[in-house]
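Lecture notes, unit on binding sites. The following record was shown on slide 14. It pairs a sequence with zinc ion.
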Amino acid sequence: MLSPSKLTDNPWQALGATHADTTARLDGVAPNSLGRTPASLFHRDSWSAYARILRRASPHRPDLCYGIEIGTANMKLAACDAGGAVQYSERVDTAGFSFDEIVDAVCDLVGAADSALATKAPLGLAVPGIVDSATGLHQTANLACLRGRTLLPLLRARLNRTITLGNDCHCFALSEAHGGAGAGQPSLFGLILGAGAGAGYVVDGRLVLGRNRAAGEWGHWPLAPALLARYGLRSLPCPCGASACLERYLAAPGLRHLHAYQIGEADVPLDALVKRSDAGDSIARASLALHAELLGAAIAHIVLAYDPHVIVLGGELSRMSHLYKDVPDAVRAHLMPGLQAPPILPSHFGDTGGARGAALLVRQYLPASLELS
Ligand SMILES: [Zn+2]
């Protein structure tokens, strides 16, 4: 008989296991290991078997998976069916929450969804930063209450279900690859430009994660020294421990920094900066042009490393329409002759993409082999 407790989970679920155990599990379910890359997110046979388990555990909606994105200011839950359609959603404000309050909020959201949908669905979690694959400790600069803590053991004990952990930018990219701006494309690079800068890379509908689940940590690539010198920019320290990381110049605080560098005017709201640029303010235009130039150069490096078929932008800065006009030209200017710049598109799902992608992530980590007892 199949047992949910014996499903092979995301290695990030294997907290408390030895590093060797974790690596073994990773090798066993690696969704993108060579020769095993499926064309679809869903292993149909595995999903059918898993669905039988879910029908016993949750007879009313066995097709549903929950996804929760834990952000710096709020937490969002999306319940998605097997086709990726959001059937239920909810969000709560969590600004300033402690670690224990975050745990409580996750449990409250899941409990409310269980009651509303009369089911008990598996859960995917999208969190910022990375998780140490050996210790399970969260390493994140943007959500300080998680740093150095582990979420999964507490949540699994309280929620008693399969829980899959993923990076928020990875989940965003996965969501946009399935029914979003990158639907039908062989590969997609999803960039989030908000409080920080991160990314996820999806090939044939499945996330490429890498050994440390760190693939796509593009925000911590260094800005090219030649660009620092050309524009006279300072090498800014980054909370990750390095300096001159792309995030420090290209995320929302980075754009404000570039504008402050231009004229010494700090903390200008970005919507005000755009309005001033649209009204013909030459300094505001210069700030946005410098940002687009640096972003284009950084995306050109993505093309050289990953050569994605499409790039999808999310986060606060993705609402700035000039990026879709100015950045492609900047990308082309930094590519060698003969290389085409990929289309750069706004996200389809907006700020619900992370939660939806977390639900899809549960399906990506469907067991490659179900244990029998
Ligand atoms: Zn960094």
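Take-home: The chain has two domains: 4-175+353-364, 184-347.
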